[in-house]
Amino acid sequence: MSREDNSSWLKTGPHYWDGDYACAEGAIAAGCRFLAGYPITPSTEVAERIAERFPLVGGTFIQMEDELASMAAILGAAWGGAKAMTVTSGPGFSLMQENIGLGVMTETPCVVVNVQRGGPSTGLPTLTGQQDMMQARWGSHGDYEIIALSPSSPQECFDLTVTAFNLSERYRVPVMFMMDECVGHMTEKVVVPHLSKIHVLQRRWYRGKKERYRPYVPGKDLVPPMVKAGDDFRFHITGLTHDERGYPVINAACQSICVTRLVDKIKQNADRITILDEDRVEGAEVVVVSYGISYRVATRAIALARDKGIRVGSLRLVTVWPFPERRIAELADKVKCLVMPEINLGQVYLEMERVACGRCRTKLVPHCGGWVHDPEDILAAIVEGAKP
Amino acid sequence: MEIRLSGFGGQGVIRMGVILGRAASMFDGKNATLTQSFGPEARGGACSAQLIVSESEILYPYLTAPEILVAMSQEAYDKFEPGLRKDGILLTEQDLVRAHLPRSSIKAYSVPATRIAEQMGNRMFANMVMLGFLAAVTGITGRDALHKAIPGFVPDRSLDKNLEALDRGWELGLEQRAA
């Protein structure tokens, strides 16, 4: 049906796309040329778009037998030199957790898109949720740090997918792209910039002598450079605790070095990774902290509260993980109350409460999923929070 | 401007919303946010698309008090009419919707979109008749912008017929608006 010329790999110019399509196009713009996935509502349109576009831009799309295999396939593709992505929703995200941990442990750059729907289990296939936020943070076993982004519009689904790839390459970690059904199925104008205006970070390759290559010798930023399988390097990678050579060393000393670096490379770079979008936070008595579709809904409550004369600011978590501890702590010292609406019964909120640590009030505006908040509920929390 | 487009699944209601939003945002210099509610069923059942068209940035993406309701089926009319603003504009499919108790404050228009489409050879053009009618009655977006927005969003082989259907609806809309 489409008369669109799909052969040009970058579709510079304006489009009227939903979030899922925009995410697919963002991946292509970022240089992603491998996607393995298993269709699931409400993420299917991402895979559909990729399946239509990849053959024309030299990419490989594989519909896998399930989500375990999908996640495994993108790790393999990344070690083969590709920028790789998978896309799913809650039930598939659960199945991917084991291999997400393998990606963390082997420091494999890739992007995992989760267009969230209501859960647990198969839950609400066609309806929205933000209930996988803690799963994105802690879903695989063991200690690790992760990067997660949450777009609020189709334009951001494009822009931030590029950012997600850049962060995954920069820090060699699977990046969780936490969309939600509302943003995935929302259609708005998306402007694809000219190629020269899109910042795409390429993989940092090892440049030393082949015979001296050891896969896990970190740079100053704690991130090791990478090589491509098949390029004549002799190396070993494993999910087991390993030393700089990549070989298993099963003892407490090696575990300490290996796992501490996995955590520190994110923690110590948290301020560089963190992206926040603030509006009228200075001088505010209440700040609404939100992400994804809940940000868009909160804007109405904020407007209504400002009409009542309440000084309300907005802090949007564009990156949700690592959690912006420093900024939240600063605000907790200045405001009466931090309010967080999220489409779950309290997940990211727990982090905000922990960091605020009693220095200001914190209020959760929960929602079980299936639809977005009534702005009046968020307004009520703002009004309550502004009381002396 | 807040618009709800509704009907039963398969009538091209969502497609109507996509084309209208595309016309307004890409060819008419406005912002347009489209959200849709859909269930597991592919056809039948009341379905609706919600569109906001604005000169300024759209942050809150949902309808608060729709000013325009398009109802292409009785079920959709019964379900969504009570939510239409009291000074709103109602556009119905003349043969498929009986607007039994029109509120006096509402401006009501109707067009036999399906009958016209069938006369043109295919009832699938009904959504285009309604779209042209809607644009002409309300002035949301111009005919040129709609003509530019349609290619690629209907099958190529029936593009001319779709544009013709849009024009038929547009003419009827202008007539009713003048009357």
Characterization of the model:
Chain A has 388 residues and is α/β, with parallel strands linked by helices. Chain A contains 13 helices and 15 strands. Chain A has helices at residues 19-30, 44-57, 67-79, 90-105, 133-138, 154-171, 181-184, 252-267, 270-273, 293-307, 325-332, 348-356, 375-386, and strands spanning 13-18, 32-37, 60-63, 83-88, 110-118, 124-128, 147-149, 174-180, 187-192, 276-279, 286-290, 312-317, 319-321, 337-342, 361-366. In chain A, strands 2, 3, 4, 5, 6, 7, 8 and 13 form an eight-stranded mixed sheet that branches. In chain A, strands 10-12-11-14-15 form a five-stranded mixed sheet, sandwiched between helices. In chain A, strands 1-9 form a two-stranded antiparallel ribbon. In chain A, helix 3 packs parallel to helix 4 (90-105) and helix 10 crosses helix 13. The mean pLDDT of chain A is 96. Chain B has one domain (2-178): Pyruvate-ferredoxin Oxidoreductase, domain 3 (3-Layer(aba) Sandwich). Chain B contains six helices and six strands. Chain B has helices at 13-27, 74-80, 113-119, 126-138, 143-149, 159-178, and strands spanning 2-8, 31-37, 46-54, 68-71, 89-93, 107-111.
Give the arrangement of secondary structure elements.
The complex is a heterodimer of chains A (388) and B (179).
Chain A: E1 13-18, H1 19-30, E2 32-37, H2 44-57, E3 60-63, H3 67-79, E4 83-88, H4 90-105, E5 110-118, E6 124-128, H5 133-138, E7 147-149, H6 154-171, E8 174-180, H7 181-184, E9 187-192, H8 252-267, H9 270-273, E10 276-279, E11 286-290, H10 293-307, E12 312-317, E13 319-321, H11 325-332, E14 337-342, H12 348-356, E15 361-366, H13 375-386
Helix pairs in contact in A: 1-2, 1-6, 3-4, 10-13, 11-12
Chain B: E1 2-8, H1 13-27, E2 31-37, E3 46-54, E4 68-71, H2 74-80, E5 89-93, E6 107-111, H3 113-119, H4 126-138, H5 143-149, H6 159-178
Parallel strand pairs in B: 1-4, 4-5, 5-6
Antiparallel strand pairs in B: 1-3, 2-3
Helix pairs in contact in B: 1-5, 3-4, 4-6
